């Protein structure tokens, strides 16, 4: 994916929370989908064993794909193949080149783990399909991490490869991310946190994206 064929507005990437279980998360995901536009869903393995992670992936993948949402499996390429996911996510730089070579002809390969511009450029040279600025499970504060915002803004302005920037736990932080020019905003706690209505959260997120206007990286914001 390049800037020539991505929408000129930021889009939502949902990330399953650490405490996701097949039944409860399937229900929450189904509600979130009713809230409006969602580009993709990332399912991280966290500390789950293989069997538990596969059960979660088997439950969530068909729900998302039926709604036109790409499913990305983080942390287990075998499970990605078993559930016919649309992509895999790799956080270790040492594993990225191999993942791109082995899997990119079959599915998207995304990367994360960059903590600096140099890190990001080194990952980008391996040509994954996107970079994620942020860490799974580290969106507990209301606002996005300043480093992730800064990296996302710099990357969106300078580099053709799409990026995802992790939002905070406050759904209003979506607008802050959207104004960086990033192609995608990642949401987890802000949608799937305790006491939150996933459908309402996604609807609000899309409204905040609309308020932010076309992506700054396109020179229109």
The low-pLDDT segments are 1-6, 217-221
Secondary structure: number of strands = 8
* Number of H/I helices: 9
Assign the CATH topology.
TIM Barrel
Quick one: CATH superfamily?
A: Aldolase class I
The tally of structural domains comes to 1
Radius of gyration: 16 Å
How would you summarize this macromolecular structure in one to three sentences?
By secondary structure, this protein is α/β, with parallel strands linked by helices. The chain is built from nine helices and eight strands.
Task: Tell me what the structure shows.
Helix content is 42%, strand content 16%. The chain is an alpha/beta fold. The chain has one domain (3-210): TIM Barrel, CATH 3.20.20. Strands 1-2-3-4-5-6-7-8 form an eight-stranded parallel β-barrel, surrounded by five helices. The radius of gyration is 16 Å and the shape is globular. It starts with 10 loop residues before the first strand and ends in a 9-residue tail after the last helix.
């Amino acid at each position: 994916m390049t800037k020539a064929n991505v929408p000129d507005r930021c889009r939502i990437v949902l990330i399953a929370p650490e405490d996701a279980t097949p039944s409860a998360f399937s229900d929450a995901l189904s509600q979130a989908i009713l809230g409006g536009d969602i580009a993709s869903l990332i399912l991280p393995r966290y500390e789950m064993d293989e069997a538990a992670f596969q059960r979660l992936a088997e439950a969530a993948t068909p729900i998302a794909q039926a709604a036109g949402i790409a499913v990305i499996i983080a942390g287990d390429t075998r499970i990605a193949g078993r559930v016919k996911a649309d992509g895999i996510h790799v956080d270790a730089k040492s594993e990225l080149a191999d993942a791109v070579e082995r899997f990119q002809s079959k599915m998207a390969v995304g990367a994360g783990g960059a903590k600096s511009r140099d890190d990001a450029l080194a990952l980008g040279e391996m040509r994954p399909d996107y970079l994620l600025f942020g860490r799974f499970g580290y969106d507990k504060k209301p606002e996005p991490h300043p480093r992730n915002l800064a990296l996302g803004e710099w990357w969106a302005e300078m580099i053709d490869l799409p990026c995802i920037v992790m939002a905070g736990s406050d759904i209003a932080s979506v607008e802050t991310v959207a104004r960086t020019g990033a192609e995608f905003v990642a949401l987890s706690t802000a949608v799937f946190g305790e006491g939150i209505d996933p459908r309402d959260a996604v609807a609000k997120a899309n409204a905040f994206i609309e308020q932010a206007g076309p992506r700054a990286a396109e020179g229109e914001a």
